[in-house]
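Category: protein sequence paired with discrete backbone structure
Discipline: computational structural biology
Format: plain text, a pair of labelled lines
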Amino acid sequence: MSNTKNTQESQDSQESQNSRNSSKTNDKQTAKSRPSPMEVLRQARGQLAELTGMEAESVSSFEQTEEGWALEVEVLELERVPDTMSLMASYQVELDAEGQLTGYRRVRRYERGRSDARRSGGR
């Protein structure tokens, strides 16, 4: 009788251990499937360039949101001479959790040589 009981306890212990290991493996796989912030930045720049035909010069804002990622990307819209007169634009770019672009819009257009007007509240 006690031999049967020990065998059952051993099986239960093994199943519990397998369940914990499976959970850890799934967590690692989920973490690996999510792109890193740098991968998200590269994907966003590439996807925006493909859609607009304009290369991103810089990313001025980047944050993770509940839905995925939000970025503000600066692009050269119209090159002029001198360079300080070139037209730049800021695009707000939204990506899902996997880094796929879900939307974008131009939020500002300005000359490269112009500084922003001061806004109250530090923004």
User: Anything to note?
Assistant: Helices lie at 2-33, 37-52. The CA atoms of residues 66 and 88 lie 29 Å apart.
